Structures are given as C-alpha cells and as structure tokens.
Amino acid sequence: MSEVILALDVTTAEEAERLLDAVPRAGWVKVGSVLLTREGGALTRRLVARGLNVFLDLKWHDIPNTVAGAVAQARDMGVAMATVHTLGGRQMMEAAAAAAGDRLALVGVTVLTSHDRASYGKSVGRGDVVIEAEVERLGREARDSGLAGIVCSPAEVGRMRDMLGEGALLVVPGIRRSGDRVGDQQRVATPAAASAAGATHLVVGRPVLEAADPASAFAAFVEEAGCTRL
Ligand code: C5P
Q: In this structure, are residues 145 and 110 in contact, taking their beta carbons and an 8 Å threshold?
C-alpha cells in the first residue's frame, strides 16, 4: 500500500492551483525546482495551508551548514518530505537529518536516472561503475546518516526494501498503468507492482496531468496502489 504523490510539474502557481482543483482527492503533492524558483515559498505555504502533504524535491547538495539551513526552512514551513542528494556526503546528510528532526521526512536521491554507467563513472572520476551497486552504496550511506529513506526507480525498489528494512521510506517515480504512455521514463512499473515491491510513495506526473479527466486518472492510480487514504 503506497501513497500517491501528484507531481505539480507546471510552471505557475495558477496552473498548480487549477490542477489541484481538478484533482481534489490529491493528498500529497510534489513541488520541484521549476515551480519553487518561479513562485518562491509562498505557493508552498499555501499548499500546506490547504492541508496538503508537500514533498519538496529540490535535491539539496551543498555544504552541511547551508543544507541544514534550507532543511530548517522547509521544516518550519510545514513541508512533510524533502530530498537531499546523497553525493553531498555523510556530514551533509547528518546535518540535514538533525535539522529535519521528526517533523520533516528527508529522503536521499542516489544516482540520477539521467546517468548511464559511462556518464556516472566520468562524473565521479571512476572508471567502470556498476550503477546498481552504487545505488546500494549510497542508499546505505543515507540510512547510516539518519535519513528516513531514499528515492529510487521501480527497478531498485524491491532490493532497496530488503536492504533498508521495514521502516525506510521508498519514494518511486516512473509509475505507469498498463496502457499509459511511457514518455521519457526508461524504467517504469505499475502502481500495483511498485507498491507490492515495497514502495511507500509513488510519484505520478504526466499520466494525470495529461489525462482528459485528471481526477479519474488520479483515482485509478490510488486504487491500483491499494492506498486507503485519499
Ligand atoms: O510525468 P512523470 O510521471 O514521469 O513524472 C515523474 C516525476 O518524478 C517528475 O516530477 C520527475 O521530475 C520525477 N522524477 C523522475 N525520475 C527520477 C526522479 C524524479 O521522473 N529519477
């Protein structure tokens, strides 16, 4: 059973609010760097005030003091969950986790899905890197630093559930129902499969945003994910 997070992948606050009016059952929403850069914190505060659980996906990666400061701001705004980049290192993640306390769930991004083996190896100055092993290594670092969980692809969710244990949050994008357009997502899974493999949160964007009837598309995802909280 997973929560379904509606990705507010639009540019303006007006579009985001129109989308929410069209999908009134959404309980979790993702705010990313496009919307946040355009609208600042005001929109996030309004979403929190509307009673929504906000997932702030800014993938922080900076010196520990700066990331801890950003995390504290998100926490004080009432954000429910946010991302840091695990490549920021142990000290950064520990400072972030300490700032989050128990009011904000922090999850770590491991290897961006835009990387392949060669581009990732080049970025980190290492020759041949097995991406799956790297995701596991960074997932362990996230857990040992006190983060609540990680973001991972559907291909990794089962393995990461086994590795990180019962309590870890596993946030999974790349979710499609059979028949949905895959778009640029490389590795996709259905809501039922990702949920059964151990995902706690499914991030869904285009299949709802581009649907003729976004409310019923969203409801279908929730139903397939076995989510009881709407
Ligand atoms: O439209 P779609 O359902 O593919 O959107 C998925 C959301 O998850 C988007 O906001 C996208 O930026 C995000 N995401 C992703 N793949 C990752 C990490 C985040 O698709 N590896």
A: no
| Measured distance CA(211)–CA(113) in Å, rounded | 25
* Atom 2 in ligand 1: residue holding the nearest Cα: 205
Q: Is the CB of 2 under 6 A from ligand 1?
A: no
Kind plus residue range of the DSSP H or E element containing 3:
strand 3-7
- Residues with a catalytic annotation lie at 59
Ligand 1 proximity of 7 Cβ (cutoff 6 Å):
yes
Q: Do 30 and 8 meet the contact criterion of CB atoms below 8 Å apart? A: yes
Phi and psi at 119, nearest 5°, equal -70, -35
Can you tell me which atom of ligand 1 is nearest the CA of 113? 21
> Which CA distances in Å does 22 have to 43, 109, 221?
17, 30, 15
Each residue's pLDDT tens digit in the chain (230 positions)? 899 999 999 999 999 999 999 999 999 999 999 999 999 999 999 999 999 999 999 999 999 999 999 999 999 999 999 999 999 999 999 999 999 999 999 999 999 888 889 999 999 998 889 999 999 999 999 999 999 999 999 999 999 999 999 999 999 999 999 888 888 777 789 999 999 999 999 999 999 999 999 999 999 999 999 965 44
pTM of the model: 0.95
